[in-house]
Amino acid sequence: MDNGQKDILERTFNLAASTITVIRTLRGDTATQILFKQLIRSSTSVGANLEEAQDSHSKKEFIQKTSIALKEVRETNYWIRLLKRTEQIKNIRVDHLENESLEILKILTTIVKRSKQNAKT
After folding, report:
1. Cβ distance 26 to 83 under 8 Å?
2. How many CB atoms sit inside 10 A of residue 74's CB?
């Protein structure tokens, strides 16, 4: 595993841990609690799918798992934006989560695109 792989695995793990930490400090009504659960589910799924991708048996399987992680980070960003827009969360740490999810989204998009290109050659 190269440093780039270690970095993205660490960043996705930290995104999940930070999301859990932030959400634990917040309160909300029933609807907000459901959104919090969705956010935790999607943010923890990003890194879990990348970890699974590390043991892929083929390029195709790697691309599939990494693509799922990409979808999950996109969903994570959606829940963060929705919670912010509905003013359920007003926290500087949430801005950090949003920024980090966008950065991870860019990285995973690049990984998936390059992996697909390499699989064709």
Report:
1. no
2. 17
> How much is the pTM?
0.90
The encoded tokens of residue 10 equal 């660490």
User: Side chain identity at 93, as an amino acid letter?
Assistant: R
Per-residue pLDDT 10s for the chain (121 aa) are 566 678 999 999 999 999 999 998 888 889 889 999 999 999 999 999 999 999 999 999 999 999 999 999 999 999 999 998 888 777 667 889 999 999 999 999 999 999 999 988 7
Q: How does DSSP classify residue 57?
A: S
Q: Which domains does the chain have, with CATH numbers?
A: 3-120 (1.20.1440.60)
